[in-house]
Design goal:
By secondary structure, the protein is an alpha/beta fold. It is built from 12 helices and 18 strands. The relative contact order is 0.12.
Length: 478
């Protein structure tokens, strides 16, 4: 019955490749064609960072300036710009920390060294995870898959294909293109605004260095029955595994029904429709399992550079216990495990902890323990009971929102922690509060009774070429 309904609802599924228009755009960078065509990279002259007038730009250029604002600069110029930007951020941070620690400071001089930025070994097509949205395209078609510019408040959102973006790998673009072709075949409307109805939502594509590909399709059920949803899931599998989408060679195809913008596997399970439940990646000689919703750095080569940087900064700090807070799938802790007696990782996402445990097992690492839960709940009870005879170190890698106050308090108040390495993707944001709490004078009212830390060195690591963002590794000691 279901197979008959699939054929009746998707009558053109086997003929789509000949009936659907191409969605590719063309782009040339540094004289090398990323796709055949004439969309040219208009390089800036050295020292000029102005972009062309918005109204005179093509849609592709507008998107590139939004998603990858530094794409017109050479990579050397990008690194210089990021180094300068981190210096400005750290000057402001240094002044704040000295003020809260009641120390004098110079407004134009850092009180600690800022080391040269660590470059990404790969500059183009480096992303191993991309999420493509659905919205109204340049031609007005609401079933356009790509990245959008504009805002809902202004009513000027336009969704643009991203195949000209320098950080996008061709495989991600291919999957997004086929997803667009599929939803244009589907009788179901897209879900652009939840209360307006619709069903098909964004798609996430994950890949690894070996070429394996995982696709995750997000779907709003609205009032559809379970039988109706099963039919459309079957059509999705048919298209990507046996139809034109088979060209994507998916290793895993997931489907998540959700009435929320974002939700975890526990809130709404990721349903494996086809293939393997995981893909794997290698970094620094270790193998890591990646699930549908687990965190792994989006730039594998730069991630290795980041882990090497953390390892170097953690030398000469004893070989005791390493606390890996916000550990994700355990990549940092596992990569540092040969250098320490024990690693204890803490992570909120339960599936990521399962991956971390699996990763330790498949790599034969026996000195790692991973705990699922909120760090602010686990750490205050965990730290006092640790055997810290050979030293206690901490590496924290939180989201942009930083660490919970109770986590900072637990780390600050334990005297055995003499060095703390903080990896921040936005040091000028909410993380600044964490830095102040680590370094301010003792405050009994706020229960910050431990000896204050001092910021001793900072190292930027470029994880995101062509964008203004990078990771900043900060070392705090006492």
């Amino acid at each position: 019955m279901v197979s008959m309904r699939i054929r009746s609802v998707y009558p053109l599924i086997k003929h789509i490749s000949s009936t659907q228009p191409s969605v590719s755009f063309n782009f040339v960078a540094n004289g090398r064609s990323l796709a055949t065509g004439s969309f040219q990279r208009k390089k800036r002259t050295r020292g000029s960072r102005r972009t062309p007038d918005w109204e005179t730009q093509s849609w592709e250029e507008r998107l590139a300036d939004t998603v990858t604002p530094l794409w017109r600069l050479s990579y050397e110029e990008q690194l210089q710009l990021k180094q300068e930007q981190q210096h400005k951020i750290l000057l402001a941070l240094s002044a704040q920390l000295n003020q809260f620690a009641s120390l004098s400071s110079s407004e134009n001089k850092l009180t600690f060294p800022l080391l040269p930025i660590v470059p990404s070994p790969v500059q183009n097509g480096y992303r191993n995870k991309s999420t493509f949205s659905i919205n109204k395209g340049v031609d007005g078609n609401p079933k356009t898959v790509g990245f959008y510019i504009g805002t809902g408040k202004s009513g000027n959102i336009v969704c643009i294909h991203g195949d000209h973006l320098l950080n996008m790998p061709p495989k991600h673009i291919m999957v997004a293109s086929h997803y667009e072709k599929f939803i244009r075949l589907s009788p179901l409307p897209p879900c652009i605004v939840f209360h307006d109805g619709g069903h098909w939502r964004e798609i996430t594509v994950r890949t690894n260095s070996a070429g394996n590909t995982m696709a995750i399709v997000y779907f709003h059920p609205q009032s559809l029955t379970a039988e109706d949803i099963s039919m459309h899931k079957a059509a999705l599998v048919e298209y990507f595994i046996h139809g034109p989408g088979a060209a994507c060679q998916l290793d895993s195809l997931y489907f998540q029904e959700s009435t929320m913008t974002r939700c975890t596997h526990q809130e709404s399970p990721f349903q494996l429709l086809y293939g393997e439940p995981h893909i794997h990646e290698e970094a620094l000689g270790f193998k890591f399992r990646i699930s549908a919703d687990s965190f792994f750095q989006v730039n594998r080569g730069a991630a290795e550079a980041l882990y090497r940087t953390v390892e170097k900064l953690n030398r000469n700090c004893g070989a005791g216990v390493l606390l890996d807070v916000c550990c994700g799938t355990g990549a940092i802790g596992i990569s540092l495990s040969p250098k320490v007696e024990k690693v204890i990782g803490i992570e909120l996402v339960e599936q990521a902890v399962e991956d971390a445990k699996h990763n330790a097992a498949i790599n034969g690492v026996q000195n790692c323990e991973f705990i699922s839960g909120k760090a602010e709940v686990i750490l205050p009870d965990l730290i006092p009971n640790l055997n810290t005879g050979r030293g206690l170190m901490a590496v924290v890698n939180p989201s942009r929102s930083g660490l919970h106050y109770r986590v900072i308090r637990a780390l600050r108040n334990h005297p055995a922690i003499r060095r703390l390495i903080y990896i921040s993707c936005k040091p000028e944001g909410e993380a600044t509060r964490n830095f102040r709490e680590l370094c301010c004078s003792s405050d009994k009212h706020r229960k910050l009774t431990g000896e204050p830390f001092k910021l001793t060195v900072a190292v930027p690591v470029d994880m995101f070429p062509h964008t203004p963002h990078c990771e900043l590794v900060l070392v705090f000691e006492r």
